[in-house]
Amino acid sequence: MSGWRAASGGRIERSRPIEFHFNGRRYVGYQGDTLASALIANGVDLLARSFKYHRPRGLVAYGADEPNALVEVGEGARREPNVKATQVRLVPGLVARSQNCWPTVGFDLMAVNDLIAPLIPSGFYYKTFKWPVAAWPFYERLIRRAAGMGRAPAEPDPDAYETVHRHADCLVIGGGVAGLAAAEAALDHAESLVVVDALDTFGGLGTAEEARIDGQPYGAWVEAVLARLRASGKVTLLPRCTAYGHYDGDQVGLIEEVAGAVRLRRWMIDADRIVLATGAFERPLLFGANDRPGVMLAGAAQAYLNRHAAVPGRRCVLYANHDGAYEAAFDLQRAGVAIAAIVDARATVAEALAARCRTAGIRHLAGHMIAQSRGRRRVTGCVVHPVGRPDATVALTCDLILTSGGWNPAAHLFTHSGGRLRHDARIGALVPDAPSGPGGPPPRMVAAGACAGLFELADCVASGRAAGAGETVGAAPMPSPSGEPPVAPVGTASKQFVDLQNDVTVADLGLAVREGYRSVEHVKRYTTLGMGTDQGKLIGLNGVEIIAAAQGKSAAAIGNSRPRPPFSPVTFGAMAGPFVGDLLSPARTTPMHRWHAAHGAFFANVGSWRRPQFYRRPGESDMDAVVREASNVRRQVGLTDVSTLGKIDLQGPDVARLLDHVYVNGWSTLQPGRCRYGVMLREDGAVMEDGTTTRLSDDRWFMTTTTGNAERILAHLERARQVDLAGLDVTITPVTEQWGAMAIAGPRARLLLGALEPDFAIDNAALPFMSMAEGRLAGIAARVLRVSFSGELAYEIYTASGDAPAMWAALVAAGDAFGLMPYGTEAMMTMRIEKGLFVPGFEADGRTLPDDLGLGRMVSTKKEFVGRRSLGRSAFTAPDRKQLVGLMTVDPTRSIPRGAQIIRYGSASLPAPVPMDGHVTSVAFSPELDRWIALGLVAGGRAALGETRIAASPLTNEMVPVMLCDPVFIDPEGRRLRA
Amino acid sequence: MRIPCPCCGLRAMAEFTYGGADVTRPAAALPLDPSAAPDADWNDYVYRRDNPAGPHRELWFHAAGCRRWFAVTRDTRTNAFLSEAVA
């Protein structure tokens, strides 16, 4: 219990106390606190247990770099795991809990892992749980339970999320001094700007209150710039907004915390220019047991004090290697903290600074390092010795150790989409490298301020202005003020944690290198260095330098590992946005949808469409319904909704030439009023699509496509018109939505059509198979195509979408007299399988050629078309190609397993893999034949009709003897079609 | 990422469909004789594609827009569009 609240200062509102609960206990903080600062002020220093050894841990950092204080926030459906206490704003009624500990954070049984730590070095799991291989799932379950990183809520997320897409001329990430300077400079160059900052307020963290910019006090300067940005009308200011990823095409993903009906808003911003002014993360210095609660970054302690008046201790040792860190000690001393000593790793420190320490009465140990912290659940002191003389120890008493090893640019976003970081020894930091070589396009992402390795206030302002104005920012950071490269000595003590979240120590990294790992990326994965939810923001250069030293190399020589998105964890709800439930994917419904729903239709998703699968009557099984519907089409007449077919209107004198190019068969001879079936290929010869195109008049045509291919075929036609055959006079218009369509099929279809009193002739001579008529039907303007997908006498009736329900109702009303029943996609599929008609995606699977489907004679030899040249390739004419055949079970009572492989008799006893002859593509129970039938693709199948094979389905453990037969099971002469 | 449509200007990538490399379709010689066009030429056209780290000439289709197909040069390293699109 070391933390406390200073009596004055900070940006908290002391008149607005906020009650909250942590680990079941009630505490009080203030408006303006984070969970972290409120816990400090309440004297809570044990916040978590570490991931592997379950060592007690407290707060280390102020922001996204916090490795330890992962908590669960909220309860029930709103419980969120793995949240950093530093990033949780204190709100009334907040409930938070420690995670990764059992039964409590104070008494954690798994802490036994710490005692056996020597037994579980890096790679322990790989080394120990290798044998036997089959037992790994068992081990994994145990390990996962022991490790655990919080619990995800089991209930659906009750909160609302938004997704916003925006374009901006300029996006400034980070609203500190450099970011604000950039935004102001960009006003003259950009029409739209977005400026974001993770904090509630702009102005940043790194600037002292008494600093002056352009002759103004820092605070006044910030307010003046913000006022100018707001007044310009060009700028969107987004506080509480964190950029989590930089993606292809300079798209940046951001999460904005929204107070109100929406919890989080995800922004995807396309920006022509991105200024990265994200500042820097402080680098900790290492020593033994540097993970004890009470060890904290100097800048973090300073921020807790200055922003929240939360003071993390009463007696402090500062361990640093640069001048800037001293300010933390001076600030804390002013607030009433005793400074036990300032330990500086540098041998010499500027006299002015040493004098300030003397004036302040602070013991100053230059050229010293901390070897080890003392204490158990909280720091009680530390052991210090001169660098290089571990024997001359000095013991210091304290409850707070602040460390600062300099600053490392928070350049994570810079690397997300290709940027490289460069090790700059002069400042001991990884800084964004000049992004592209000569001749390359100008980089759109530019770093400024501390993120560019510029730590002086004037440099931050200047680099920000340059970046905002679109100038190239020199990637040459200033050397450290003392002119010497920083020193970060690493002692020999055990338990010097480089990665606090994943419990990776200096010794672990050394072991990995001794075991032969060299690349930083490999050592990282082997030891899990930097692979926690904090992405190792605290590790930065420490890891690189230790791995380099273990190999006797320089840090610059071994490179660095590359952070990837997200910069900080993003909750699933924010990624999903509003697109959940019914909004997950838009559903397309036909004009007759309501009728279907009211008449017992079961809907299937076909692409984005909802189509009736079958209409089940009371007492029927699904199968009963399908059999009834299909039988009724074969015996009387059925009605089905085909509005989902893709429909394309083609006009112009050159349509026949376009069709000749995309279809395998010829089109110029087709007379107006006639329909023709056509097949389209890809350039590699594979069948892509089939459908019917009708010539309405000399220069007007009407194409229908399969439901799932509508968009693709439109693009294909446009490409043929605009690219391959540029200059054709054809206008292509998609009219899928404009036309409702329904098919009537069955021997009594013509009688039904006649009952609707068409004002055009429908007899077999006037309207034969594959012809078209237009006129009024039931008083409604209609286009009627005599085409069939069932093998029966059939008509497709097209009307304006708005008229389709009325036409449907007229058919249903008139159909009573003819035994009309509606039928769904299942009955339709049953009948097309009975007719041996292929469907793209089933039989035409992207490898199937026209001849494989028995369509070889359809292919024109007199003209060029897409895919023609491929058909002549030798492999495409081989006799053992997989060909479309029908399949019947030898035992008519047996069914055929879906997706079964076709193998030869006797081959099951061959050594695996058993040679496959082919596979089953579609299966149906044929009401007409009263047995199960299937279509399949079988090697050399057409020459083997009458032979038997085995349909083998290892998944269902079935081996079913089947006979190969002609794929047309019903009416092979097509008499019914033409009746 | 935004793509320069020659008809509509810069539009969001979600409106477009990628059409692959801008390769020229070998002209078919009539009468059609499979041996007339060498296998190698056709093979290159159907299957072989360069995969440059740098400028790449490619086709895009403004599917959710004006339905224009156009060719444009994109730097595959940066996704910057380097040339004005041509229809």
From TrEMBL, chain A:
A single Gene Ontology MF term assigned here is: sarcosine oxidase activity
Among InterPro entries, the record links this protein to: 2Fe-2S-bd_N, BFD-like_2Fe2S-bd_dom_sf, FAD/NAD-bd_sf, FAD/NAD-binding_dom, GcvT/YgfZ/DmdA, GcvT/YgfZ_C, GcvT_C, GCVT_N
Q: Which residues form the Aminomethyltransferase C-terminal domain?
A: 882-971
Q: Which GO terms describe its biological process?
A: tetrahydrofolate metabolic process
Taxonomically, the superkingdom here is: Bacteria
The GCVT N-terminal domain extends over 592-863
Q: Does the keyword Transmembrane helix apply?
A: no
- Looking at the record, the residues that make up the FAD/NAD(P)-binding domain are 169-427
| PANTHER family reported for this sequence | AMINOMETHYLTRANSFERASE, AMINOMETHYLTRANSFERASE, MITOCHONDRIAL
Q: Which family does it belong to?
A: Belongs to the GcvT family.
From the Swiss-Prot or TrEMBL record, give the protein name. Answer: Sarcosine oxidase subunit alpha
From TrEMBL, chain B:
Q: Which Pfam families match?
A: SoxD (PF04267)
Q: Name one GO molecular function term.
A: sarcosine oxidase activity
Q: Which Gene3D superfamilies match?
A: Folate-binding superfamily
Among InterPro entries, the record links this protein to: SoxD, SoxD_sf
Q: Which domain of life is it from?
A: Bacteria
Q: Which GO terms describe its biological process?
A: tetrahydrofolate metabolic process
| Name of this protein | Sarcosine oxidase subunit delta
